[in-house]
Amino acid sequence: MKALNTFKSRMADKGSVLLAVLLAAAFIALLFLGTGHFAYLLVQMQAGRVHALRARVQAENRVLYQAGDADLPTTAGRLVYAAAEGSTGKHQLHRRLYLMQSMSDEKILTAALIVGSDLEEPAAFPIIDYEQLFMGAANCDAATFGSKFLTSSGFELTPSALRSSRKCVITRLPGDDDYAVKGNLEIQAAAQISAGGRSSAVVIAALGYLEAFEALTVSGKVMLVAGGDLHLKSLVSEGEAVEVTLVSSSGVVVVDQILGVLALRVITWSGAYLPFGYVPSGNNLLPPLLKREVLGMG
Amino acid sequence: MERGASALEALIGLVLAAPLMLMVGTGVHSALVHYLRIRVEHQNQYALIKTEGLLEKLMQGLDSHAFTLPLRIHKAGNIVMTNGEPNRVLSSKKNPPDLRSDAITGIALEITASYGVVRFEQQPWWYVFYACPRFDRRLHPEEFKSFVGISPDGPIELRGTYLAHPGNAECLDFELAPVESMSVVAGDLLGAEHIKDIIPVSRHHTFYVDQQQQLRLLSHRGAENVENQPLLRGVQSLKLSMEGVFGGSVSALSAEVKFVDGRNESFTLVHKLGQSSYYNFLMNRP
């Protein structure tokens, strides 16, 4: 009887041991499963990250390539966009590249007088590459205005035209070199612009208004560009049919007097006021133009 | 006799079970070590992906416009405004930045919601700009409270509100005041009266690591911090640097993320659009 009890007891111990081994095995299996699951999540996260990055880059590259195509949807005026979609597997990506597109046709660009506010479609006013014109422009000193926006000569500026808080005052121009300023420009004495041996035009440019108080004598190709109003008291041509282009991006072009023969082209946003009876005859001088200008990506 | 047999049985059992126990022990140890390592790796990967995503969002902000408004890196947590004044978070008792970590600020603009200024009135310390949309997007009431104004003198950050202009559903009256900025270098703030374009600011954030090793999002409206929230635990520090690529008009942001376990991961982000001056945007109208 005692031997039987001992046998039963030993069998029960073996059962416990077996149970313990099974439990340990299950625990280890769970640990391995947990480890495996984490490893799987890790790989999945890394793969997801790479995939999402690729999808985003592809969508962005697609919109950049599409921007080179001819016909893009127009939202308003000259604003166009290239759109592309992508998927990361979980999320849809929508990217748009916004651009300002030139709507000017050949007829507008060849005109001797282009006035933006007179155009049937204002977006047809040419897009000019001012970035190029103002590359390396000089800085100016602070300027103050009274209650009315008047220049030092008393010329009243167009309220909607660009003006700067800075002003460069000069009495002579630097020979046949281009000259651009980050501000308003007042040429307070009679000055001469000579293209010398240059085949390209001499460019004088101001971010704000540009005003010449006295006679401005030009010989060779000359381009005067103002962000705001452009006011010349007297424009004197030295030579036969000197080519001159006057540009105002947001204001008016006012020339009180023209002496000599000029092939004058005027590009202005708000209007041109030339000596009575003077009709611009045009030339080939156009400021650098852009077909499209990138605004941003959304 | 029986006791001796039992001892022998136990000894033999122990000898037989020892390799098994050793295997089980090694297995448990190995599984635990791997489990802990993978868990840390998982946390690090999550922190890395989230940090990369947040910095990528800053880079997208850089692509939201083509102006030269670069990301600003604040070395050693010295978060300052563009005029050099310290940001208020530096004197915060609750969540000051960890001075071992860099911070970064970026601004995003809603360029298609730009408004062109038709006229303005100067008030004692603010301006009322009457402006109309340049493109197709119209602003909803109270949609934005922070703006960037563009004048020939450069960009300037503005803060304020807007209301529908009486008798013109398209145009708005913006009541705005120039403010110091975390991103816009406004110089001496001379040009506010010459502003020609008003562009809403859609995001203006700084990411920094606080002294509890939390990556935080600080939102700005001018010099004021309007939001400071924790985003992520597990980042000990960020080392950031930017350099111009492709001739300098495009920037590459290099980031080294140090995790709380002392390990590092690095990545580089490059944005898509070249940056230029504001001249073409300002002067090519409408």
Structure description:
The complex is a heterodimer of chains A (298) and B (286). Chain A is an alpha/beta fold and 298 residues long. Chain A folds into 2 domains: 1-101; 106-290, no CATH class. Chain A has 3 helices and 19 strands. In chain A, strands 6, 7, 9, 10, 12, 14, 16 and 18 form an 8-stranded mixed β-sheet that branches. In chain A, β1 (74-76) and β2 form a beta hairpin. The longest helix of chain A has 65 residues, at 2-66. Chain A starts with a helix and ends with a strand. The mean pLDDT of chain A is 87. Chain B is of the alpha+beta class and 286 residues long. Chain B is elongated, with a radius of gyration of 28 Å. In chain B, 23% of the residues lie in helices and 40% in strands. Chain B has 2 helices and 13 strands. The termini of chain B are far apart. In chain B, the strands form 2 sheets. Chain B has a 6-stranded antiparallel barrel. Chain B has a 3-stranded antiparallel β-sheet with strand order 11-12-13, with helices on one face. Chains A and B meet through α1, α3 and β19 of A and α1 and α2 of B.
Short note summarizing the structure:
The complex is a heterodimer of chains A (298) and B (286). Chain A is α/β, with parallel strands linked by helices. Chain A is built from three helices and 19 strands.
Notable characteristics:
heterodimer, A: alpha/beta, 8-stranded mixed β-sheet, rod-shaped, B: 286 residues, alpha+beta, 2 domains, 3-stranded antiparallel β-sheet
List the helices and strands and how they pair.
The complex is a heterodimer of chains A (298) and B (286).
Chain A: H1 2-66, E1 74-76, E2 79-87, E3 92-101, H2 106-109, E4 113-115, H3 130-133, E5 138-139, E6 141-142, E7 166-170, E8 179-182, E9 184-187, E10 191-194, E11 202-206, E12 210-219, E13 222-226, E14 230-237, E15 242-248, E16 252-259, E17 262-268, E18 271-273, E19 292-297
Parallel strand pairs in A: 4-17, 5-8, 7-9, 8-11, 9-12, 10-12, 11-13, 12-14, 13-15, 14-16, 15-17, 16-18
Antiparallel strand pairs in A: 1-2, 2-3, 3-19, 6-7
Chain B: H1 2-63, E1 72-74, E2 103-109, E3 115-122, E4 127-133, E5 146-151, E6 154-165, E7 168-178, E8 197-209, E9 214-221, E10 224-233, E11 235-245, E12 250-259, E13 264-270, H2 279-283
Antiparallel strand pairs in B: 1-2, 2-8, 3-4, 3-8, 4-7, 5-6, 5-8, 6-7, 8-9, 9-10, 11-12, 12-13
